[in-house]
Structures are given as C-alpha cells and as structure tokens.
Design goal:
The protein is an all-beta fold and 118 residues long. Helix content is 0%, strand content 58%. Strands 2, 4, 5, 6, 9, 10 and 11 form a seven-stranded mixed beta sheet that branches. The chain has a four-stranded antiparallel beta sheet with strand order 1-3-8-7, with no helix packed on it.
Length: 118
C-alpha cells in the first residue's frame, strides 16, 4: 500500500489549506484513514481519522476548524484545514489502518509540510 500526500505549503494565519492523500495497492480491509502531524520538537499526534462508514474523530485542537472526508471509491482521504494557526505548523502524515480479524497493519505516507506564518 502506498500513501501519497499533496496540498501542503505556506499559508498565513487564518488561511486555509486542503490536504489530499491518495492510496494505492491492495486496499481490502482498509478500515481507517486519516491524518497525523509532527510539529518541530514534538511527538507525532493524531489530527483526524475517518472509518469506511464515515465515523470521524478529531483532536480537540482542530475541532470546528478541520474537516476530514473520505472518498472510498477513489481510495482518497482529504483534510480541509480552515482558520489555520501558527501552532498548526507541522509535517502532516497520511495514515491508514488495515483490520482483518485480529490482525492490524498501519501504513504511513511520506508527509507534507504545512507552515502557518505571516
């Protein structure tokens, strides 16, 4: 499975960006897709995830500002980021989890840089 992110960049505080992650390869059982991020000097943290049934989960820090959506037909997950703050600056990683019975496998993209700065 390959996860390829796009859409990162430099944006001013209060601005918006939309990240996309296209998955390819064997997608059977890919139950969860989403986004994590790692800010400079910090550990990687969850941003948002979505199940195939569109059950979503957000970090408290991004609720009401970020929206995750998933297009299962295209094996793509999106993250619409509004009202961006400097503290949102991080490398954003696409994430996918395959669940088959008791077996779980995590997949990660290479990451895309998001910088929020005036």
């Amino acid at each position: 499975v390959w996860l390829v992110e796009s859409g990162g960049g430099l944006v001013q505080p209060g601005g918006s960006l939309r990240l996309s992650c296209a998955a390819s390869g064997y997608m059977f059982g890919m139950s969860i897709m989403g986004w994590y991020r790692r800010a400079p000097g910090k550990q990687r943290e969850l941003v948002a995830t979505a199940t195939r049934g569109d059950r979503v989960n957000y970090a408290d820090s991004v609720k009401n500002r970020f929206t995750i959506s998933r297009d299962n037909a295209k094996n793509t997950v999106y993250l619409q980021m509004n009202s961006l703050k400097p503290e949102d600056t991080a490398v954003y990683y696409c994430y996918a989890k395959r669940i088959l019975g008791r077996n779980e496998t995590d997949y990660w993209g290479q990451g895309t840089q998001v910088t929020v700065s005036a």
